[in-house]
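tool_log.txt
---
The assistant was asked to compare two proteins side by side. It first ran the structure predictor on the initial sequence, then on the second. Raw inputs and outputs are pasted verbatim so the downstream comparison step can read them without reformatting.
(1)
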Amino acid sequence: MKAKRRTGQRARTSLILGTCILLVLCLAYVLSSGEGAESLSDRLDVVMMVIAVLALVSPFFILLRTAGATAAEDEADLARRLGQAVARAEPLTRSHMGGDRVPVRVSFTFRPSPHARSATRPLVPNGTLDGLVADYWAVRPRRLVITGQPGAGKSVLARAFVAEFNESRAEEEPVPVLLPLGDWGRQELFRDWVVRHLVRDYGCTRAHAAQLMDSGLVLPVLDGLDELDEPGVLLPESRAQQVLDALTGYQSGLEPAPVVLTCRTDLYDALEASGRPMLDAARVEIDPMEAQEAVRFLAMRQDAIRREGQWRPVLDELRAHPQGVLARSLSTPWRLVAMATAYEQVNDPGELLGARTEQDATDRVFARFIPASVRAVDEEPRYSPERVHAWLHQLALQLESRGGGANTLVLPELARSPGALRARVLYAVTVGFLALVTLRVFLPDASQGSLGWGSVLLVVGITVTALLLLRPGGIRLLPHAAMGLPPWRSPLWAVAAKAAVTAHSRRGVLMLSVLPTLVLWRALAPEWLGGISDWTMALAILPTLMLYAVLVAGQALDAAVMGPSGWLRGGALVALVLLCPAGVIVGLSLRAGLGLDTVLPPLVLLGLLYCALSGDTVMYLCWLLVHFRRVPFRLSRFLDWCHVAGLIRITGGVYQFRHREFQEWLARHPIPLTRPTAPARDPATARTP
């Protein structure tokens, strides 16, 4: 193993050195004193030459990054870094537990298994949220299924498990990772799916993620088995059954690999009755929340103490009728928390006493939930409740249009959703237009020699690479994990700068600094040392070098620290890195009195190269243009604000609505304060629960 690692390191070092030598030779040839870059047209050729070489070399770096040679790191160190990323990405905030000092009490009970292949259970289980990790350690093999009614707190229990397990994890123990099951495809292996999420959500390289999986250092905590299928799907043909079959065969050597799964009670009962549940697992059932717990939770909140007169009728109704309409509508932690938030400070909770059905009470709560959440963020909120409702309605429709219980909102994938054909067409038209303009410039030169044909082939290659991004599995010259950046004013930038010059990444930083150093040397050095002593040129390219340094520093951080919108900031920075030389070209051309025919070719080529380097960003912008006025143009900023307001939750690198029930309600109600309507799903016609 060590010999393979040394071989991989030598291969990586040789490729990096060869690339740098190639760049040095190219620059030495085109920038040599005498005939190299004395005229403006030659300087423009230099810029295009450097861009062309970088475009040719970039795929080799990407292939090298995903090769097995990069996996030659200590597994304990990889697990430690993944654990840090998970801890930052999955904090157990107050909003998950009720938004007040007094949380909702969640308890559970171990249920006996109807089949012989079940895990051993603890003799004296704790049965509480705080004791879940201790109960899990007593399970052999370590496979656990968490079941409960809709809104019972399965996701909260899973999130609490991840946070507490990760906090007490020893070096040799696996890292718990919360993964939403919504995007697991039927043809994708479970291992490959987990690896994809580790790369997308937590910034791991594909080789490192595969190494952690193969070493058994990842504990998948799978949330949302009940959200995979639409009602009416036969159980043997359902995606949920496929997941259970895959997990039954998920092994660590000869033993069942550890895994935690959440599912709705009625669906898992049906899967167990069908004879194909997940084997070698213990099952816990979240206890129903009784009316006295709802009374205790509501009575202890600050608003109930301050406005005792308005809350007393509600509490009296819950005490007097523990099985009434109001008690049944508040029978889950999620609904109870939503109700407490909706009637905080200003709204009168007594209006719920007039609800005749559970659906009526739920509609009244959700109608108040968004305005109350918006008001809780700021006294003068950035967005009005009406606009927030309308925008979230559009996003809910986007998820519902995908079918299959989609509940994850990944911004780079919006343009690839089934209803985003116009956005993809707009992107293809943009790339085609840039390619045609560029080819029209280079085709007349192709007949004069091989250099012209080489330029044409380069343009065609960049165009094909940009168009391949239309496919979900298209080749990316810059993966999302390599482009993610923290917020511009974040203190994480100091951490990134320090991490970029540590012993672990110092060699890579030095290698990446060769090209900027040579370009800056050429601009500042005297002529007898191969430079041109042009301080104007040096000042012009200095912003590009600074942005380049910021991009290198940002890659030293984990993607989970940057959040789901970190890739978008990285794409914006790549655009600035290419925009600065474009500005230099325009400035020099105007100063020299040259026309549009001289300025246009490098500008168009830069735009085409940006589509190849950051096509996901361009497609995302196309999607925003197509959905203009339906969603805010700064959508990531809006979703981050919704996360603070408690309307959206962040799981790894994706956004999710606070609850699936809330998502479905928004999809049915385009206008705030809409009167109750019929449910979207009719249980009488469903074959799967």
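(2)
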Amino acid sequence: MSAEQILTQDFGTLADVIREQAKDLGAQAALVDANRTISYAELDELMDRIAVALQRDGLKTADVAAVCATTSAEYGATFFGILRAGAIVAPLAPSSTADSLVMMLNDCGAKVFFLDAGVAKQLEGVADQITAKRVALDGSSAGVPFEEWLAPKGSKPEPVTIDPDQGFNIIYSSGTTGAPKGIVQPHRMRWGQIRRGAYPMGAVTMVSTPLYSNTTLVSYLPTISNGGTAVLMPKFDAEQFLKLSEKHRVTHAMLVPVQYRRIMERADFDSYDLSSFQMKFSTSAPFSPEIKADVLKRWPGGLVEYYGMTEGGGSCGLVAHEHPDKLHTVGKPLPGHDIRLIDEDGKEVAQGEIGEVVGRSGAMMVGYHNQPGKTSEAEWYNPEGLRFIRTGDVGRFDEDGFLTLMDRKKDMIISGGFNIYPSDLEAEIVLHEAVLEAAVVGVLSDKWGETPVAFVALKPGQTVTPDALREWVNAKLGKTQRLADLQLVDQLPRSHIGKVLKRELRDAYKGTATA
């Protein structure tokens, strides 16, 4: 059966698809990084050697192997090799604290741990708490060198049978702050994403976000399953992104909004030949309408924004090049996705009203690993008993069925009994000519219970005093919305996928909010 035939089935496995692609595509590049290119034939053989080595080390179907390293061709191949062994992949963030990494490794029960020298150095103080066998992807002393660990060329793994509801990967929701939750995504969920068809045969995709991120995987996996080429960046850099895009004639890319901003801000952007681009995607964080419009104007190819959760549930898509009048929205529910809005009592709100976004589709997590209580909190059941995933986001559908997001539910500010949506205030602040970006959080207030405080980063070379900017903004806001304080910062703290870390701003606030 060909790869194309497998992809038409209701269920199949990525490992089987790659094996069939290798028969047809042979010498075509599958993975490209700064050091090497791996063809489809080489990738298929390497996956076999990885799978055999894992089975030799005792991994059985549905056991877990973890990976924590800088993006590389070896990392990309290892992800697929783990799947071919029938095991579950747990990709971990190198930016996590040492204690968080140990916790995640123990939580997922990883039997083999792939890492590199940088991660090994970070773990020096807690290395004795790690029981998994360590394999060094970069050939360093971080573990058994990858090439030595691999099974001999020509080795073939024992065949495995995969249940559609078996875990494909475990992605941890946080590794920098808070207690990470392991999101178990099943093979069935990933198969649906692979078959979505957004990446055509022969696509050349720039992979500029880390391989441990769900943002990356929804782009990386279908690129390879459909016989494309993934160009892997170890770390995002706007100039390098543009140079590599021109060099490799890139056709597709998944970027987070802050990456788009940094690319479009470059004075030399228009000097690069980006005519090969067919489609660009974005997800993971709020994407300003102004930047979307600039991308549509100056960057060849279409632009699609996806809204959804790593946990799955319902997703929306905005085909921006077809709906330039809806750039303030995240689009409509994707085919087969059911999106509802509910109130504080768990009842659906009327058309046009604001509510928490919940969603249901064929792409839903099994649950949080070893945390049934947290799983239950993330679920909502409608009167017919159908399971939805709660997003924690607040939004509203317009008369055309497009969803506009307000804020995270936990970020909404209740001041003197009035609901204040930080996004409304942020939208006003960034209208000032000196402002690059802004984030508004609620802080405790004796007078109002909560009150809004803004953190603002200015454009290079611009100056304005905090008091003058606050006065300017408050003149444009309603009485209940006015900022109690405004602080200038060099930059807003962000996660690895560009989300502003509002909790860090809230926790670090040292000012006095009396208004």
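---
observation on (2): The first helix runs from residue 3 to 6. The radius of gyration is 23 Å.
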